[in-house]
Amino acid sequence: MKKKISIYLTLSGLLLFGNGCNDFIDKEPPLYVNEGDVYSNPARIENALSGLYASMKNAGSTYALVGGKGYAAMDARGNDIVNVSSNNVELLDVYNMAVNDVYADNTHFWTYSYLTINRVNVFLAGIDGAKELLGTSLYNQYRSEALFVRAMCYYYLNNLYGKPYILDSNAKSVPLRLLPELTAGNNSMPASTVAQVYDQVLSDLSDANISALPDTKNDYTTVTRATKAAANMLKMRVYMSQSKWTEAISAGEAITGYALAADVAATFKPPYFNKESIFSLPMAQNNRPNTQLSLPEFYNSANDILLVDTEAGILSKANYSLAIDARVKSFVGDNKRLLKYTDVANKLDWVPVFRYAETLLNLAECYASPGGSNNEAKAKELLKLVRNRSVDPNQDPLKIDQLSGSSLIEAISDERRLELIGEGVRGIDITRKGETFKKGAGANYFEVKPTDVGYLWPIPASEKLSNPGL
C-alpha cells in the first residue's frame, strides 16, 4: 500500500466511511472508539461491515470505484460507447486506450481498490475473535460478505492490469495483499500472476463461504448486500474468463429466485430494484459520488461526455438497432445519450452490478461455446428469454433457431452488448476473450491488440516508487 494512504488504514478510519443508504448502511457509527471496542459490540461490527460496501462503492471524495467513475471506465474502454469530451478528467485517455502510469484515474483506481482491500483485511482480523459474540451463523455471514467485497476488487484489478487468462495465465498481474497493513512496513510485495489472483478470488468465493450468505428475498437489503446469487455471479464471471464452461454453468445454475422484469427499463427507475436485481449499489444524499464521478454525469451531463456509439458500436448493427426493440426505445436518446442513468441533479441513480439478464446470457455463452446440438439448443432458449423480453419474436428479423456455431456465439455476444450497455461489462468482455479493441469509425477508427501498449493499464508510478517488490 502507498504510504500516503496509510492514515486511512486504522479501524476508526474504516468506520468513518461506513455510511450508506438503508437501515443497514445509514447507521452512524460512534466516533472515537478504539479497535477493541468495535469488535466487542455487534452494532459496531455491523457498521464496520457497512463501511466495506461504502468503500467499494465510493472509496473517497476523489474517486468512485464500482459506484461511479471506475465502473464507467469499464465501458469507456469498450467499443459501444464513444467519448466526445476533450477533457482528460472525463475518461478521454481511457477511451483512447492511452492510460499511462501517472494518469490520475489509474492512480485513483489502484489506490482506492487497495484501500478497500485493506479495510476488508482489517475487518477480517478484527472479527476473528468475535465469533462467540456474533454467533456462528452471523459471524460466517459477515466474514463471507467481507470476502465478497475483496473478491470484487481483485476481479476488477485483474481485468485492468493483468493479461487475459486465456492468453497467458502466468503473466504478472497485481500484488495479493491478504493481511491488514497498518503501517508502511510491508509495502514491498511482488505482483502475483493472473492465475494466482483468480485463484484467490475463487477461494474467497468458495462453496463454504457462499453457503454462509443469505438467499435472495428480492428486497432492499439483499439486493444491496452480498447474497449467494451475487457471489455465484462473480464466480461465474471468473470461470468464463478462464473458459471453464462447466464450472461457470454450475455457478450460474445455482442462481435461483430471480426472473426477468416485464419492463426492461424497470431496474433503472425508482426503487431501482426488482425481481431481476441480484446486486446493486444504492445511492443516498450522504454517500453519492462527488462531482464528475457519478454515472449520470458521464452519460447525461449538459456537456456530452460518453455517448452511445451508433456509428461503430452495437447500435450500428441491423438486428440491434430495431425501432421495435424496447431497449432502443428506453435507453437511447435522440441525442445519443444513454438513458439508464439520468439523475444528473441529485446523482441518486443506483448502480446495477449483477442482473438476472446477465445470468441468462452468461449461461447462453457457456452452453454455446463448447458446441454440440444439446448445448446449442439450451443456449438458444436462454438467448430468446432475454431478447424476446424486448423484441416481439413475431417481428424479429433475427432468426435465433437458425443459428449455430460461431454465428450463435456472435449473436449471444451482440445481445450482451445491447442488453448490458453502460453496465461496466463490455471492456471486460473484450479482454477476457483476448480480443482486439476495435473502436470508432472512418477517420476515427483505431485498433489496440493484446500485445500493444495501452491494452492494459500499467501499474501506477506512485506504487512502483513505494513498492520495491515490483
Give an overview of the whole structure.
44% of the residues lie in helices and 5% in strands. By secondary structure, it is mainly alpha-helical. The chain has one domain (3-456): Serine Threonine Protein Phosphatase 5, Tetratricopeptide repeat (Alpha Horseshoe), CATH 1.25.40. The model is unreliable at 1-31 (pLDDT under 50).
Mean pLDDT: 92
Shape type: globular
Percent helix, as a range, is 40-55%
Give start-end ranges of low-pLDDT stretches: 1-31
CA radius of gyration: 21 Å
Top CATH class: Mainly Alpha
Major sheet: order of its strands? 1-3
The share of residues in extended strands comes to: under 5%
Quick gist of this model?
The chain is mostly helical. It contains 20 helices and six strands.
List the helices and strands and how they pair.
Layout: H1 11-16, H2 35-38, H3 42-58, H4 69-76, E1 81-83, H5 92-95, H6 104-127, H7 131-134, H8 136-161, H9 194-204, H10 207-211, H11 220-223, H12 228-241, H13 245-253, E2 277-281, H14 295-300, E3 306-308, H15 326-331, E4 351-355, H16 356-368, H17 373-390, H18 405-419, H19 426-432, E5 437-439, E6 446-448, H20 461-466
Helix pairs in contact: 3-6, 3-8, 6-8, 8-9, 12-13, 13-16, 16-17, 16-18, 17-18
